[in-house]
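Batch 3, record 17
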Amino acid sequence: MKITVNNTEYSVSEELAELKLSTYLRENLGLTGTKIGCDIGVCGSCTVLVNNKPGRSCLLKLKDVVNKEVLTIEGLASSSGTLHPIQQAFIDAGAIQCGFCTPGMVLTAYAFLLENKQPSREEAREAIKGNICRCTGYQQIIDAILLAAQRMWNNEDKRFD
Amino acid sequence: MFTDAFRNDAAAKVTGKAKYTDDYKLPDMLYAVPVHSKVASAIIKTINYSKALNQKGVVAVYTAKDIPGNIKFGQIIKDCPTLVNRRIRSAGDVIALIVAETREIALSALPFVEVELEEIPGVYNPEEAMQGTSPLVNPDFGSNICNYHKVRTGNMEQGEKEAELIIEQEFNTSRVEHCYLEPETALCYLRPDGVMEVLGSMQHPFSTRRFVASTLGCKLSAVEVKNIPMGGGFGGKDDTAALVCARAALCAYLTRKPVKLIYSREMSMRESYKRHPYKLQYRMGLKKNGKIVFIKARIVADGGAYCSVTPWVTWRSTVQSCGCYEVPNVQSDVYGVYTNNIFSGAFRGFGSPQVNFAIEQLIEMAAEKLNMDATEFRKMNMVHQGSKTITEQKLDNHTVSLQQVMDSVLQEIDYENKVQQCSFGNPDVEEWYGIGYAIAYRGVSLGAEGTDMNSAIINIQPDGSVLLETGVHENGQGAQSAMILIAAKELGIPKELIRYRLPSTSNIPDGGSTVASRGTIMGGGAVVNAAKIIKQRLCEGVEKALGINGCSYKNGNIYSAQGEKVADFFAAVRWCYDHQIYPFAFGVFKAPQISWDEETGHGNAYFSWVYSCQAAELKVNCKTGKITLLNLVAAHDIGKAINPALLTGQIYGGMAMGAGYALYENFPLVKGEPQITNYNGYRVMRSTDLPEMTAILIENADPNSPSNAKGIGEPALEITAPAISTALYRATGKRFTDLPIAPQVREYVKGKKQ
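Prediction for the assembled complex:
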């Protein structure tokens, strides 16, 4: 089986077909940015992108991502270390507190912004409803998503002001 | 909206590089899991774990008999077992630990630990537990009443005589789970120097150190607890988290290998302590002109199976039992009670959300009964500059700003107009609208709960870079960033020069727990005091180098007695090192004196107070009972805003948690057994459950705080529920006095339809 994680292709033995993606990422690849909050697919902390769509890595098995591209939080910044605009926006808008939901939240927001280049606050709110954050009340996360949209797509309108 | 928020640990967190406990792996590391009780009240007859030991990959199974030190520990009463040796008191009790080569093996061995139990009668209702005939939860203690606090002010008989109107009401609040996203985890290893090193998801390294040292039977100096990123605490990572660390340390001590103990969400929810459910019975006497003449309160808190911090939680409830009002005659009786329920402990708010939920509704009910505007009624009775609290503390050493926070919120939300539009269950509309607000004061920091001091170390390196550490723990709230900003301002240097060094228990003195919204006020005070010393050191260096006297420090530069600039920060640092002066300072902030008399319930309970107002707007679908929050507005007088973006984030997050407390959150037990095991059964507020929020920062510099700042973590949560409950009353026409409210609104609407 072939799996691509953060642009690197891995060969995985068939015996691991039933292994949880979250376990593979954390234990086998050492990509511990993917967090485990509930392990039953409810909290969204373990969200990764599979072909640019958010997926819960605690529910996905390796067989589910064969020949697909998995993006974890470690793969979002450029190889030189420059933060992706959505990451920078999370910092700048004050969207980070304990940080445990942050990787899943950032990836969910990133996938959303790939689809929606001029999001409203309501659309951003809807987009992250599958990701629990116990610290922030989400408001500054929504701020971050709109700030990132502006920076990424150079929006002229000022709906987020 | 902020676009340049400062948070020194944000880059690590946003890239996934920040390492939380479970992200660490050590060579030869073993994995441990706890064996929990399956019942809430029983005697252990035998524990047979030979079958578990025979599983391939299982290294050891440990029970209480393997503990070299104390089996039981606790912050106040040492009643909480690291592992139960005989008597099971709650469904969250841990009987044994399985240590294995992998976590999977350890988990798969769980069914092979056979525990023979004899169930004994338990008690699950605090009122029953208080009766003398009830089984004793903690026979060594001799009573199920764990603690009792009271306030006796004025003369109740006189109050009863003077009262022209009486209002009585009972309120009940729910058991609430913290739901920090990261479950408890600990990684311990015995270092070659004999020190047990502890990494863990806990918010009180020094408390954890006491638990670990007690369990191992070693000195405090033989345990080093380090502060690493933690995935949320909210008060919840104290006793349980410390016990988890103690258990991991026990396994590491006995196996002589690094051991990681990881809790699943199910284990965390089963074992961890919750917010105390309260029963609050109030009787209030009023004059027809609107003056409150007495309040009589009887409050019973379900403390569960272990004491934890129940006496402190209920003490705050006692001091704040009448809300932020002047009441001449007071009789408050507050009980913390042992039951066989999952124990209760610290949770953001710490005994205030319960009393505020009750008292702020009682105020609204009283105003209505008097046919008075609730705002006028509050203004007539609330504390103002120079007022005396119910514990006879005179509020004259800081700005009493209730009026200011209230005016700010009511103006921002356009209350006067909107309150006219409330539906009160109008049968002619499909959607009911309501608005409500609540006010409160909150004593800062610990008050008479405990010794209150903190320290900071400023250590300037030869190149002018600064290492800063304090006795404050980074719980995720941004404590480090606040400390950096305070130091940068005091020293007049760019914040980029300052690196915060996450402290360990071995290199800074015990500064108490980072609880009670005390991080900024206490740690910040220590930073200011350390900065004062370091400025003197830098001046000394310049004086020695130049052979002059009387230098002073201002905004990063040193001036001669004549007022001439003689050195910048970097030159001063260099000259210090050249002339055998370390630019190093240890600063301490001791909280101003407080007092408390347990007999009368009088005293200067807290050295300053935070003033707060929050308002909520909502609508209710009359057919389904679905509640939609439309708006939440808060104003808090925090003294001084150190880091406005993160401060604002605390307010938003607090309101979100408070809204969840009001509407949905509940952790029911049946005969002590949790009915919820994971997030699928517990409703945490999601983004779509919340409205846009507004946070107003009120800054009346507090002279009692060296940085002028107070605290925000808890004020932000403690009055959201009464604001929402009053808004729901104005929407539906029905007053809901028990938490959580959303299920009752659904039932109410259903009842109306029939």
